[in-house]
Design goal:
The strands form 2 sheets. The protein has a 6-stranded mixed β-sheet with strand order 7-6-5-2-1-8. The protein has a single domain, classed as FAD/NAD(P)-binding domain, CATH 3.50.50. By secondary structure, it is an alpha/beta fold. The N and C termini lie far apart (54 Å). It is built from 7 helices and 8 strands. Bound molecules: flavin-adenine dinucleotide.
Length: 147
């Protein structure tokens, strides 16, 4: 029997969501037949469209219009809310911590994959401007933009 191909997308931001969206459209038949499965691992159940954050901060648009619910748009993918803490690409395995694994104390899950899409974004650099680290707020999430 032919094995099911497993695609793992780490990060459900701009790159991760659009990659998974395109894959689920392109692989519609394969997904239907169960020949392939797409799993997206990401800490939040929504994608934040960061270019709209200034509009949300200014009150020109509602904060809910800046986010896209992942389970609604990626309805043929499995969305796992958690964080990939390490990847062993030689073994094609990702270690994933979720709220459930933390609460149950079972240790993180191991997710096996055949193809990996690594899209965890970036960490903003704080420039060495006096007072910036102490007094400024970030501008990457809805919470920060409307806070
Ligand atoms: C205020 C603002 C305005 C912008 N305006 C523009 C613009 O006008 N035009 C433009 O082209 N670009 C703009 N950008 C940049 C654009 O938003 C980013 O380039 C884009 O979001 C990058 O996409 P990404 O998927 O790499 O990262 P992100 O969209 O940040 O997504 C990364 C995702 O990975 C998740 N993640 C992180 N670590 C892990 C982990 N260990 N396991 C699982 N998931 C993880 C994160 O929670 C997040 O959901 C703007 C950015 C900001 C902040």
């Amino acid at each position: 029997m032919k094995e099911r191909a497993r695609i793992l997308v780490v990060g459900g931001g701009y790159v991760g969501m659009y990659t998974a969206l395109r894959l689920q459209r392109k692989l519609k038949q394969e997904l239907k037949r169960g020949d392939v499965e797409i799993t997206v691992v990401t800490p939040d159940p929504y994608m934040t469209y960061q270019p709209f954050l200034p509009e949300a901060a200014a009150g020109s648009i509602s904060p809910r219009h800046v986010v896209v619910p992942l389970r609604r748009v990626l309805d043929r993918c499995r969305v796992v809310i958690g964080e990939a803490t390490s990847i062993d690409h030689a073994k094609r395995t990702a270690t994933v911590a979720t709220l459930a694994t933390e609460e149950e104390g079972t240790g993180p899950d191991q997710l096996s994959y055949d193809e990996l899409v690594l899209a965890p974004g970036s960490v903003s650099r704080t420039l060495p401007i006096p007072g910036l680290a102490e007094f400024a707020i970030g501008f990457k999430t809805v919470e920060e933009a409307i806070g």
